[in-house]
Amino acid sequence: MNEKESLTMSSPAAPLLCRRDAEGRIVALTRQALSEDEARAGGWEAAPAGDPAVDHFLRGVASETNPLSLTDAGMGRVTEDLIDVLIDRGVIQFTDLPVAAQAKLLQRRQTRAQLAHRLKLLADEGDERDDGLI
User: Fold this and answer.
1) Residues near 42 by beta carbon (within 8 Å), at least 6 away in sequence
2) 9: closest CA among 33, 29, 40?
3) For residues 48 and 41, is the Cβ–Cβ distance under 8 A?
4) Segment 40-94, tens digit of pLDDT
5) Residue 17, class by beta-carbon neighbours within 10 Å (0-12 exposed, 13-18 middle, 19+ buried)?
6) Alpha-carbon span 28 to 20, nearest angstrom
7) What is the rounded distance in angstroms from the CA atom of residue 40 to the CA atom of residue 16?
8) DSSP state for residue 11 in the 8-state scheme
């Protein structure tokens, strides 16, 4: 398929077209079928499948249009803490949770422990100074 054909497809799987700013960041996306001349005149180019810049742009748009998405990470932590409280008080058992939820919680706990360990190592290294200065 040549570039002209790829820019003018109008099926649901039509390629994504993007416009970029002077720094190369995506500032607009469309699936609108455009002729090669329309695309060139509008500054549109095909966005490669799996382009990380497309994901970055879409995440930005999602957070701008959905204020709840700004609090999702915080709510995830609240949910983890709530699950820990319920387990600690014997209200539920860890094994009561679906296997997929158990796996996610274990992965997050492991990641959090690794990060805490790294931060502790950094603090320890900063405490030991060879130059005699405090």
Assistant:
1) 19, 34
2) 33
3) no
4) 898 999 887 778 888 888 887 776 666 777 788 889 889 999 999 999 999 999 9
5) buried
6) 7
7) 14
8) S
For tokens 């539920």, what's the residue?
92
Task: Report yes or no: 15 and 6 within 8 Å, Cβ to Cβ.
Answer: yes
Compute φ and ψ for 129, nearest 5 degrees.
-115, 135
Residue by residue, what is the 3-state secondary structure of 31-60? CCCCCHHHHHHHCCEECCCCCHHHHHHHHH
Q: Are 3 and 46 in contact (CB under 8 A)?
A: yes
| Tokens 């959090």 belong to residue | 112
Q: What is the pTM of this model?
A: 0.44
Tokens representing residue 48 in the block: 């490669």
